[in-house]
C-alpha cells in the first residue's frame, strides 16, 4: 500500500497552496469601510486600486478561470482514477480474503486426512506387530521341535552306530580267522590228498562265513531315503527364510556375478519375483558337487584310498557284479573318522561353504552371523551323510538338478517335478496340462532316481524316489 501511495503521489501534479480562512472570508464578504480606511484589493475602492494595483483585464480573468478549470478537470480525473484504483484494491482484497478462506479450508481438510492416515498407519503397525509376535512364537516352537528331533536322531544314530561297529568288528575278526583257516586248509590239501574231502567241506564253511561277514553293509528302504531328503530340503528352506527374508539386494562383484550366473542362469528374473527361491536354488546348485561325486564324496585321488575308485572301475570293466563289494568297502572306508577321507572331506566342504557365504553375503548385503554359518555347515554335512548313505547301497541312486538357461528352455514335467508354488497330484487334468506347458526358471531341489533293486540287480529299472522342486 505504501508503494501504491508513492506511485500516486508521483503521478499527481503539484496543487496550488490552499487559501487560508481569512482570505476566503475577505473574498466572500464586502470590505469594511466604516472606518474610512482603504481596503486592499477592494474592487469598489477605485482610487486605492489605481494606486496600488491595476485592475485585471478580462483576458487575464479568462486565462485564470481556464487554468482553474483545467486544474479542476485534472483533479476530477485524478479523483476518478483514484476511485477506480480503490475499487481494484477492494476487489483484490476480496479475492485475497476468498483465497485465505480457501487455504484455511484446504489446510483443515489436509489436517483431517493426515490424522486419518496416521490412525490407519498406527492400526496397521499394531497388526504387523501382532503378526510378527505370532510368527516369532511359531518359529520358536518349530525350532524347539526340530532341535528335539535332532537330539533324538543323534542319540538313536549314536546307539545304532555303536551297535553296528561292535557287530562289524566281531564279524571282521571272524572273517580274518576264517581266511587264515582257509589258507591253512589249502596248504593241507597240497600236503595231504587224503584230507581233500574234509578240505572241501571246510572251504564251503569258510565261504559261508565270508558271506555272513558281508552283511555288515547297511541297506535302507526307499522311505528312509525320502525322509532324509525331505529333512535336507526343509533344513535349507528354514535356513534361507530365517536368515535372509529381510535381506535387500546388494552389489555383486564380477566373480560373484559369474558364480551366480553359472549356478542360476536366469537369476535376474527369479530375483525380481522371488528372492528366497533364488537363494535356495544357489545353495542347492553348490550342494550338487556333493551328490555328483564319482564314487564317494571326499575320497582322495592319491594315497591308499585312491585305489578304491580304480578297483571299482576295474571290477565293472571286467563285468563282475561290484555292487556288494562297493557297499561293503565304502562302509568300511567310512569308519575312518580321522584319516585321509575325513581330511579331504573337510577341505571340500569348506570350499563349498566359502562360495555360498561369499555370493549370498554380497547378494543380500548381509554379513553372515555365527548362527547362519553353523546352520550352513549343518546343511552341508547333512548332504554329505545322505550321499554317502545312498552310495553304500547296492542299488544306484542318481541326483539330477534341472538346469535352465536362455539357450536351453525346460518345461514342467509332473512325473519328476513339483511346483514350489503348489499344485501336484491332486490337481485336475486341465490344471496339470496347463502346468506341463509352463516353462520353469530354476530348481531348488534335485530329482532322485533309484536304479536297480536292493540286491544291485535289474539296473535297467528306474524309479523316482523324490521329485525335483522347481519355480
Portion of residues within helices: 55-70%
Number of DSSP helical runs: 14
The secondary-structure element order is HHHHHHHHHHHHHEEHEEEE
- The strand line-up of the biggest sheet is 1-4-5
The pLDDT mean sits at 80
Largest sheet: 3 strands, antiparallel
Number of strands: 6
Describe this entry's structure for a reader.
The structure is a single chain. With 471 residues, the protein is mostly helical. Helices cover 66% and strands 5% of the residues. The chain contains 14 helices and six strands. Strands 1-4-5 form a three-stranded antiparallel sheet, with helices on one face. Strands 2-6-3 form a three-stranded mixed sheet. Helix 6 (222-244) packs antiparallel against helix 13 and helix 8 crosses helix 9. It starts with a helix and ends with a strand.
Compact summary:
This protein has 471 residues and is mainly alpha-helical. Helices cover 66% and strands 5% of the residues. Residues 1-52 and 207-216 have low confidence and may be disordered.
Q: Keywords, please?
A:
single chain, 471 residues, mainly alpha, 3-stranded antiparallel sheet, 3-stranded mixed sheet, 14 helices, 6 strands, 5% strand, disordered N terminus
Amino acid at each position: 500500500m505504501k508503494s501504491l501511495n508513492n506511485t500516486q503521489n508521483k503521478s499527481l501534479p503539484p496543487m496550488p497552496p490552499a487559501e487560508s480562512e481569512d482570505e476566503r472570508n475577505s473574498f466572500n464578504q464586502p470590505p469594511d469601510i466604516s472606518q474610512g480606511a482603504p481596503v486592499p484589493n477592494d474592487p469598489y475602492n477605485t482610487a486605492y486600486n489605481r494606486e496600488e494595483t491595476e485592475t485585471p483585464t478580462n483576458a487575464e480573468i479568462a486565462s485564470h478561470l481556464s487554468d482553474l478549470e483545467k486544474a479542476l478537470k485534472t483533479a476530477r480525473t485524478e479523483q476518478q482514477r483514484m476511485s477506480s484504483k480503490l475499487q481494484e484494491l477492494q476487489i483484490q482484497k476480496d479475492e485475497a480474503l476468498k483465497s485465505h478462506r480457501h487455504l484455511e479450508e484446504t489446510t483443515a481438510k489436509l489436517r483431517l486426512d493426515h490424522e486419518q492416515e496416521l490412525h490407519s498407519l498406527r492400526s496397521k503397525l499394531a497388526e504387523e506387530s501382532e503378526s510378527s509376535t505370532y510368527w516369532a512364537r511359531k518359529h520358536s516352537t518349530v525350532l524347539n521341535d526340530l532341535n528335539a528331533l535332532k537330539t533324538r536322531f543323534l542319540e538313536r544314530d549314536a546307539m545304532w552306530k555303536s551297535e553296528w561297529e561292535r557287530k562289524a568288528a566281531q564279524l571282521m575278526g571272524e572273517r580274518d580267522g576264517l581266511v587264515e583257516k582257509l589258507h591253512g586248509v589249502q596248504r593241507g590239501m597240497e600236503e595231504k590228498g587224503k584230507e581233500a574231502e574234509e578240505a572241501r567241506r571246510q572251504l564251503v564253511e569258510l565261504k559261508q562265513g565270508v558271506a555272513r561277514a558281508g552283511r555288515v553293509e547297511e541297506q535302507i528302504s526307499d522311505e528312509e531315503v525320502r525322509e532324509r531328503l525331505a529333512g535336507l530340503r526343509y533344513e535349507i528352506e528354514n535356513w534361507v527364510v530365517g536368515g535372509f527374508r529381510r535381506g535387500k539386494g546388494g552389489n555383486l562383484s564380477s566373480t560373484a556375478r559369474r558364480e551366480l550366473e553359472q549356478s542360476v542362469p536366469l537369476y535376474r528374473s527369479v530375483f525380481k519375483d522371488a528372492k528366497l527361491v533364488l537363494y535356495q536354488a544357489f545353495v542347492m546348485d553348490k550342494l550338487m558337487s556333493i551328490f555328483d561325486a564319482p564314487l564317494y564324496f571326499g575320497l582322495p585321488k592319491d594315497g591308499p584310498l585312491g585305489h578304491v575308485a580304480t578297483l571299482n572301475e576295474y571290477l565293472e570293466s571286467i563285468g563282475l557284479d561290484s555292487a556288494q563289494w562297493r557297499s561293503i568297502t565304502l562302509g568300511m572306508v567310512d569308519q575312518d573318522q580321522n584319516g585321509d577321507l575325513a581330511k579331504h572331506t573337510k577341505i571340500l566342504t569348506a570350499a563349498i561353504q566359502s562360495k555360498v557365504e561369499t555370493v549370498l553375503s554380497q547378494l543380500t548385503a548381509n554379513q553372515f552371523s555365527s548362527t547362519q554359518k553353523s546352520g550352513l555347515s549343518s546343511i552341508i554335512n547333512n548332504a554329505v551323510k545322505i550321499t554317502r548313505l545312498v552310495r553304500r547301497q547296492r542299488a544306484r541312486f542318481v541326483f539330477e538338478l534341472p538346469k535352465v538357461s536362455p539357450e536351453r528352455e525346460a518345461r514342467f514335467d509332473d512325473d519328476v517335478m513339483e511346483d514350489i508354488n503348489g499344485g501336484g497330484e491332486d490337481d485336475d487334468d486341465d490344471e496339470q496340462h496347463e502346468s506341463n506347458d509352463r516353462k520353469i526358471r530354476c530348481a531348488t531341489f534335485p530329482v532322485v532316481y533309484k536304479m536297480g533293486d536292493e540286491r544291485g540287480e535289474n539296473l535297467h529299472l528306474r524309479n523316482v524316489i523324490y521329485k525335483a522342486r522347481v519355480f
